[in-house]
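Technical note accompanying the year-one report. For the benefit of new consortium partners, we illustrate the data format agreed upon in the data management plan: each record pairs a sequence with a structure-token string. No post-processing was applied to the example shown here.
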Amino acid sequence: MDRNQVVKFKDVTFSYDGAPVLEDVSFTIQARTFISIVGPNAGGKTTLLKLLLGLLKPSRGNIEVFGQPPEQARPRIGYMPQYVQFDPNFPVSVLDVVLMGRLGHGVRFGPYGKADKEIALEALHKLEMDRAKNRPFMALSGGQRQRVLIARALTAEPELLLLDEPTSNVDMAVETELFELLNTMSETITVVVVSHDLGFVSQYVQSVICVNRRVMMHPTTAVTGEVISALYGSYVRMVRHDHGV
């Protein structure tokens, strides 16, 4: 495997109870790139991430992450799921949430160590949330919570960061800030983001993985109206959200 190649899917098919979700999927992802996964609802985007994490096994084909089976490479991956449930009455602080990212890495049994707390605080600093470390997590705004959850993923010290709809339920100003931050992160690690807003993410990512049962990977510059129509099954107008004239 190429040393700069982080992810490799080869002829991968996956089915739930015999119903195909993904078919004949083949693509690669290179190190230190910013990639977006897009496609219609129920098209297989989250399934693709779970296969990449080794949480699901393909019905056919082969997946390598850092040249290993995904489950073996998992310690090198940071993951932010689409939905995170917290009991609003449970008194968990911002720092407590971020430290959860150390479970299975620096921490197995007993309390968090000094090094774990330093890593968590550094992740909060990168997300500009270190001043909120002692605040209740549920007292934060939607955008602040998303930043904290990304910080939690970063405490795994990943070489590959997977984010499933990280900007859902936030306004455009927050979305812009988060994607600019992720774009900067992609200079040192590989970042893969599931997004529903292709027009927005096209400003930042180098390539787009289009998922609708089958998968096609395109450079952002090659994503045309025809590509989008084929992906969504109907004409979709791609609107960019930058403010250029």
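Partners are asked to follow this layout when depositing records. Residues 235-245 have pLDDT under 50 and may be disordered.
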